[in-house]
Fold each of these.
Amino acid sequence: MRSLRPTLFKAAMTFLGWAVALLLFFPILWTVLTSFKSEVEAIAFPPAFWPSGWTLENYFEVQERSEYFGHFLNSVALSLGSTVIGMLIAIPAAWSMAFQPAASTRHVLMWMLSTKMMPAVGALVPVFLIFKSAGLLDTLPGITLIVLVGNLPIMVWMLYTYFKEIPADILEACRMDGATVWKELVHVLLPMSLPGVASTMLLNIILAWNEAFWTLSLTAVKAAPLSAFIASYSSPQGLFWAKLSAASTLAIVPILIIGWISQKQLVRGLTFGAVK
Amino acid sequence: MRKSIMALGVALALGTVAPAASAEEIVIATVNNGDMIIMQKLSKEFEEKTGIKLRWVVLEENTLRERLAADIATKAGQYDVISVNSYQTLLWAKMGWLTKLDDFSADYDYDDFITATRDSLSVDGVMYGAPFYGESLITFYRKDLFEKAGIEMPAKPTMDDIAGFAEKITDRENGINGICLRGKPGWGENTPLITTFVSALGGEWFDMEWKPRLTSEPWREALTWYLDVMKKAGPAGAATNGYNENRVLFSSGKCGMWIDATVTAGYLLDPKESQVSETTGFAPFPITDKNPDAAGWSGAWALAIPTSVTDNATAAKKFIEWATSKEYARLVGEREGWLLAPSGTRKSTYAAAEYQQVAEPFADKVLAAISAVNPTKPTVNEVPYTGAGFIDIPEFQALGTTVGQNIAAALTGARTLDEVLEESQIYVERTMERAGYYKK
Amino acid sequence: MSGYRMKRAARLALAPSVALLIVGMIVPLATTLWLSFRYYNLMNPALGGFAGLSNYEFFLTDPAFAQAIVNTILLVGGVLAITVAGGILLGLLFDQPMWGRGMARLLVIAPFFVMPTVSALVWKNMLMHPGYGIFAWVAMKLGLSPVEWLSNHPLLSIILIVAWQWLPFATLIFLTALQSLDHEQQEAARMDGAGPLDRLVYIILPHLGRAITVVILMETIFILAIFAEIFVTTSGGPGYASTNLPYLIYVQALMQFDVGAASAGAIIAVVLANIVAIFAIRLAGRNLTA
């Protein structure tokens, strides 16, 4: 009896947990399944759950029409570029605020966050004009810069909350040993806060990959990432469900796989100081 | 394009340098409709023949319009060839933002274009947009359903006829809606359709002083008819159905009638896309006794070149000349099937035996529908604007969007007809006032 | 190293971030502010000149303005309510022993990786479509008539889509927080006869306080600026039923091309956002930076 109850409980939780998980995952699963159907099957009603033919036709057509690989590379460059440069800028800032706080630190931090609250649409025309005169329209550096600016507050904040949890005396001690600020950062702080740093990088990669407002407004062909590519498949004429599903799958699968592989690292640091 | 030092600096930091634009590479920004997707496919021929490389930016219509507006108004010159409709062509040509397309070779044969289509893209007789299709409105209907209900489509149906038929053939148990009409809000979606119905009932947007007339009797009548017929015979979720959605509904056999763009005729007869290819019939846009001349709208999708494009203008012209030529129309016919040949643009297409053979059920009707529209006199009363289905002022896009939204709200039942017309009237007046139309 | 030099190093380290954000935010903000006092219409170059406060007046008297504010609040509030409540429940659920927990958790977090445009397109076309969507099919199976989600419940539909995207984030944060909960303390409470509800109210929820703050703050930042989901699904309609503040500004700027009025709208949005930010500082500042 005593050993049965936990088992029963576990079984119930398993059932409930998996039911919820499948429900939440269903839209993605459905998209992937639909991408292998023919267009007619894709809108069949009542829906055909399992593709009958497992056709790859939609993928071929999407590839033929939109040079998927170029957009993919742009997405990779944009995500990695903005993340690496962002970390180089954000780590020193977070270190400074966490270990050498000034009276203004809290305000600076909140000011940084508040910059994210300005609706991007409001700044679109000014930014477009600035980009135009700087020759940054449809360039990777341009789009990387704007995505970087957009995500920097989140990076700084996330790193800051993580650094805060590291006892300051450890850094203090190594400083007593005569280590320079640089050494302190690289040899002590970073190894200790590796989970937080990894998590920040991953979150930023995800946010940059999925950024869809600036990429759509400021790139055309040369620098357009996957989030711009998907706009070609939004309500075209005729039957498009299967092609839309194929394009969607192509756009989300890379980041989904990265997210899944690295989810342990992502989760470990994704606390924003919520866990003491 | 000029590159700033800043851009280069960041580029080096990233380890990537964007390739320099070559004069022989042109960027085409286009809407993701069927004709353009075919053009993209076939343009490999053009690339091989001329050595000019084409880069395509294919976008959903609203996104495209937003991008083009920002690009052309700031003279950013990101796109060498753009796809625009009649409204944009006329407006932007008048502002000097589009390049004249009047120096193509003799083979191009400007006179071969259907006059109404060419006129809808020309200012003072000069063409600024080369059409890849032209259109008006037509009534598509299901001959099998009409037969089953024991009714017959008259040669010139009236709006009352249509409403009666719609109710009769509706069979919701079996998923048949008597009629599908655009409900999705937008100046390129429900608004032009409603505008055309208003015009058929003798109404107009503005009087000669640019005072809005949205609370006038024809608007009330048109909307009453529209809301009533959609309630009794329209599909579920009609307020989100635009052209594309209705095309899917009709071709999958869920609509008894559909009043929409003539360009669709070929697709509906194509068994690859349509399940009703055997049973679709064609009738003119419905009329009333208030304006027997009403005949739908005039519109075209065209290719144009912004004046901000200089380096690539020659290559861009070369492409447009090819993509809207007789030779191209023939190429589409041979490769993709003559049903899909560019509709409503060239008389020679309609004269071609191959086209006549497959397009016989609709070709004459489409040609008649397009030719019947007179955009310079779209209404019964005298008005200060031209355009059938749209108004050739910069503000129309804003007006059409908001009025369309209001109509959609009435369609869902969230608002009453009176509220909607009243709010629209106030909104239009406010916008026109701000744009300076009422200054003494 | 002296304290003075340390401070200098700290300021130096902070400088690039602050500089970049100043350039990246203040320059567009200043341009926007300037434009908000000018007549500037993209499609009407003839208009121009100093506009005084008329852009602000025009934006504030827009019939859609009040509703856009209400919708923005409903959108943020609705998504927060669903994701916080749902996230805590899911966090509790996935903290329990179960078979294949790691795998199930992977499925739960997946929506967070999907780009907003894609999720909006998928929900609109394949789930909520009254003719071909899965929801319509489920309704039919249950003997109900299909719900016209986007036409009749536009704001609710958008709330659902956005909540689906953010629920994984909330779940993850709460789950991490729950895992740090002292299990002995829980056990002790159980021994003392505290029921599950008591434990939730007196032990678990207080423990989650900081996590709830974080979720609210992070999500508010992103949801205040929701745009793509509305653009793709309802275009703000029918009427203004799903127009939020960013979408209204977008309509001004790129559908009406009235950059002057749109800039005024953007400035108003910044002011409102800062009011929210002040509240957020009060709420989060106490909890997080202390």
Amino acid sequence: MPLVSIRDLSVAFNGVPVLRGVALSLQKGEALGLVGESGSGKSVTWLAALGLLPRHAKISGSVLLDGREILAAPASELDHVRGGRVAMIFQDPASALNPVLSIRKQLCEALALHRDLTGDAVKAEARRLLDLVGIPDAARRLSAYPHEFSGGQVQRIMIAMALAGNPDLLIADEPTTALDATIQAQILELLSSIRRETGMAMVLISHDLGVVAENCDRVAVMYAGRIVEEAPAHQLFADPVHPYAQGLIGALPPLDGPRRRLTAIPGTVPDPASMPDGCAFAPRCELAAEPCRLATPTLAPIADDRSVACIRAEASRRALLGIAAE
Amino acid sequence: MGRYFAIRIGRAALTIVLVVTFAFVVLRLSGDPALMILGPEAPPEVLAAFRKAWGLDDPIWFQYLDYFGAIAKGELGRSMRDGRPAIELVLERIPATLALTLPAFAFKVALGIPAGIYAALHRGSGIDRAVMMTAVAGFTVPSFVLALLLVLVFAVQLGWLPSGGQDSWRHAILPIVTLSLGGAAVLARFTRSAMLEVLGQPYIRTASAKGVPWRKVVTSHALPNAAIPTVTILGFMVGTLIAGAVVVESVFAWPGVGRLLVVAVANRDLAVVQCILLLVAMTMVTSNLVVDFLYGFLDPRLRAKGAHA
Amino acid sequence: MNSPLVEVSSISRSYSMRSGMFGRSTAVHAVDGVSLMIPRGETLGLVGESGSGKSTTGRIVLGLEPPDSGEVRFDGKPMATLATPAWRAQRARMQMIFQDPLGALDRRLPVAAQIREPLDIHGLGTPPEREDRVRELLRAVELSPAHGGRYPGALSGGQRQRIVLARALATKPDFLVCDEPVSALDVSIQAQVVNLLSDLQAQLGLTLLFISHDLRVVRQISNVVAVMYLGRIVEIGGADDLFARPEHPYTQALVSASPAPGRRSAGRIVLAGDPPNPAARPQGCAFHPRCPGAIARCATETPILSAVGSNRQVACHLVTGPQAETRDAA
């Protein structure tokens, strides 16, 4: 049984659909990358799954955690899942911690909620977690406030807090986007060493293909509220099938080898309030044909571990391999 | 930290000096106290004697310095009307004013803050809209209009409560209600927007994401942050405890500091007016100091800045 | 090689910063002895993390801020004094675009009016000529005249950055400073803008100073790249060569930290320590506390940027010092 299995998850804000039927599953201990441009629904998928969206969001579909439905679960059960089974860290570490509460308070709060610890044991565990994420002088730094730490350190503290409940799954939502390159490398290194030790599964949400490629086993590419391609990481980057996935990879400037002109995807992401008929990517797609504008393609398997939502997948693959379409 | 407060206190003292100077200038320029008190028919020699007795024939800068010299020695002058020390006149009116403003303050807080929090937590609900409409009405309707409306309904029409005077606790009800409603409305709106601002912050989502029950997210994560801006407006309200009831005291014929001020201004009774202004300025300035101190207590970011000094 | 359009000789700039509200003020050396030379029609890339002084360098080069010492020469002449007619004439030849296009545009004006604004300010052409020029500029950045009538709020991030670019090009500048121009854009849009910038550079013979933290984008567009760390240039060289064979340990770490599809994280150099703080600049080589190969000399003596090979300069004792020779010999 998969750890998490999402089926037909849809979200609309004020009648505007932002997530249009997402299906995803995640095995225990697996690292799944979720890439796509802003507005593609990568964060909304997980905020919706964990009940963290504002009340006016209309959510439908199903999210199973170990086979149990959590989408319409009562608040008390969700509070047990959040931070306990599934923890989450966010993009902007500076504003993700409460500015008026000490680190000790925020860490111990998570420990008290999800672990049977009391008194000194809580404090000792809080110290251990700070040590684990590499905050020097943990005992003293526990009484400090968030503004006394640098951005990278705050993200470490967020990770410590996420680990407090011994979660089976960590959702990392653009965890390094706001950080400098060398600090990003530190945080990614920390996450992978923690995963090696604990066997925790991870969903890494990022707009940075490189970050996802290096840190994930499997990658799902999202576009306009849907998953358009899903594949093992190395396969996706070596041989992308969906024209959008190809476009994303082609748009990334190489860091070595000969320079080439970037293959930019023309146009912009469609406005969720006025989605084109059929495939949402068709207006920007060079391979789009008449049928693309008629029906929305479904995510269909093309190999054991790969699926694509594109009726021109074959043509697209040939185009990539430089085989002229007959 | 010491230096931080030394500078605040210095600034506070300067504010008081400016307020008193301003009052002195305005009152001196707007009419002759001798004429106001003795009347235009008074014989010239009586007027001259009155002016001499009160030092009104000295050059204006001399009067000004004299006045400050006296304040420095703790003498706030005597009422020109009955010759009693001005401070005595003012102090004996304070309990009457506080009898209105203190309960009103308590009601403002007890009504406004919970209403604001509730409205923010149920944003867009019927109750939110009702609270906000009441709040808008509450602070757009001037207090004298509200006072007259209440008198019309509860004293004239229904005859439940007296319309003025200070004979029993029942007389205090309408003035207190008048004072509370406007303040509660301001506080409700302010608390609501402070709360909404905080609820939209990423750390609130972080707290929910780590499994903190919503009730506790509100009490231990949102409220301490929303308290910071709310304290500002509370400090302002504390500052108006002494003289915030001028209009209401006048409408309800309540013998407090506000009424004394109105009468003293009408009579150009300088010592009394200045004494009241001094007192008002001091409460304002003190409550501001308390607010500054509370900021340091509520917000560790400011505390850290102070600690460096 | 072309004659240089922009020559920067050892510019420095420090600010005094207070710690806390009444703390002692300390001098922060934002830029410390930076020299650069940009040949006509070429692009110099400036990379570094926050606090490296790359944006301050850009502002000084553009004359928005005076250097405390050192000199910037533009087209062979020193920068004119701020707000004089000579300065205005010089400024029309150099323009700047920033990371946040929405912040650089006025939300209450149609974008065509904003593209036209520099023409009005510098009194270029008659009103009908200015209208023509605005249409021409919109075409140049691959937008239609219809886009000109819109307000910034009705455009996407990529379109807004095109408008900012069109406005910067209105006065036909020779030199463009781009400070993180594509960092806020999605990858696919970023590629559009980078391509556009390359095309325009080729068409108009523009000279660019391209400031970014993104090594890939910088390599894509630059001829020469300079790497800054805490206000100093630590390495400078030809773009392809620099990223293929970084010499300075910091450049090596940066290149290694830049994730690439198709490569697993094994073998990545992860630097220890916090990001550099300009207010607490370490003695000697500013990078030594985080440097995996630091030796005693690094803590005491600031390394000087010295030539290594024909097309590279590095400021590192490990690379240019006597140890480096023995290392090579070994």
